[in-house]
Write a structure and sequence with these properties.
heterodimer, A: 294 residues, alpha/beta, TIM Barrel, eight-stranded parallel beta barrel, 11 helices, 16% strand, B: 297 residues, alpha+beta, 2,3-Dihydroxybiphenyl 1,2-Dioxygenase, domain 1, 2 domains, nine-stranded mixed beta sheet, 28% strand
Amino acid sequence: MNLLNGFGMDTITMAGSLEAKLSAMKDAGFSQVMLMARDLVTHPGGVPAAVTAVKASGLRPTGFQVLRDFEGLSGHLHGYKVDIAKSMLEMCAATGSKVLLACSSTSRHATDDLDHIARDLKKLAMMALPLGIKVAYEGLSWGRTVNEFITSWDVVCRADCPNLGIGLDSFHIFAANTPLDAIEDLDPDKIFLVQLSDFMWHETPSFEDRMTTARTFRVFPGEGVHSEVLADLVLRLDRIGYRGDYSFEVFNDDYQQLPLATVAERARKSATWLHDNVLHRSAPMPAWALTLNK
Amino acid sequence: MTLLSTHRDLQRESVPEMPNRLGLDGIEFIEYATSRPQALGQVLENMGFRPVARHRSREVTLYRQGGMNLVVNASPDDARVSATIDGQPVISAVAFRVRDALQAHTRCMELGAWNVSSQAQAMELHIPAIHGPGASRFYFVDRWQEFSIYDIDFKPIPTVDPHPEATGGMSYFGVVQYIGAGRSADWLAYFEHMFDFSFVPDEQRFGILPKGKLMKSPCGNFLWQLIEPDPCMDADESPECLQRIGLGAVDVGAAVVALKARGVEFVESTKLHPEDRGALTLTALGSVSFELVHKDN
């Protein structure tokens, strides 16, 4: 067993080729990777070569991101997004990813009717179902209608579909100042993904502040100013019974110009901090002890 | 009893309505894909099916017994045929009888199904279809009352009885689908949402293989069984598929005798053997087996 089991990195955090990213993660001790569609389509060998690289790495895909602005549209816009979603799902399936991340819509063309949103997400989940993919619906903190996990959870409950759940992202929770008490209302089996990151300032009052910070200046858990609340979030998730993956979704312009091994090492330290200091998970038993117990 | 009082009674007892929004009305045909059509044909003939017609433009043969149509697709141009492994036939499609095929297809697409593009040649029927589990398909057929779809795409095989009787009075009873670990809830939701199938409680079981989750079609004409890998076995990562066909017979014992006389072999072990409730044929060609299930009429 690996101390970093249960934790992984997002490819968006690092610069370089897909192979170089996968290798850096593996060298740092990670066993899973959150993939993005761009990893595949920008690969010089095309999507098949990218899929081969992922499989050859031995890293388990945590999930595949990201489908944007899918829900709440109608007419030709809806039809267009259904086509986009199907292409994303095909790539997701090709990599062996079991989770597709779908972010709440920012489109002003989308309805704010939560039942309509739920209906569209159920359709997305049905599209994903034969492929063995779960859909994690995440509330972006600048989402037009759904911008907190309380609302994304409401929509997921309305849709009532086993392979549709929520994705949580600590950044959006802190940026929107969502009270963590609401975690208690979640069904841990319907949290399909938790992405963790922190940032360096306390307030992000406007949507513009949130977007700029989210896209350029996130840091790893334990590196920012919300360590305490991030630890609180992880502990609450642990307490309600969440045993799924944590992936570090760290968009950071600085990390984009650092050696990959340096960035991966920061991620490893962050995972170790969460494992040892926050979750206080016990060290794995040595093999000889497991044998003795049998 | 008037209609009104019936309606009131239903309200009083909260009898749930059984929606059937596609107007589903049984199975029109089941399709196998295989690169070994003659070997599969022999297996089917042992089971009582008879070749009755051949497709006009593709290497496809229609087999029939009683009310059961079974299509063997050996068309080398079809990816589902070339994808079969080691010559093992696979159940590649189930065609549902519906009230209006176009409406059924449109509704399923609106609910999130994946379309199958038509390969119909000139003057052939375009049968709308969606993708099912694995590489399988679900077809929607609405022309089964006024005339036969097979009259258009198929040429009858001369001198052959086009309507052979069913051995042991067998008819389609259901389909068994193998699914991935932990996928029962997903597929139950899929069939309920797409086709208005309803869940059959675990206490109600038919035949001799009671594992998994069972659903009933809204028309009540057939069942659908979902089976996850055995958790006691090593990790089974085999792809999801339509695994076998269930055949209903009022007198399973008589059907077994008739089939044995044709050379069909059955699984005979202490735990699993032919009995009044059902029987399972030995797997032929590495993948083809049939389950006989007792039905009341």
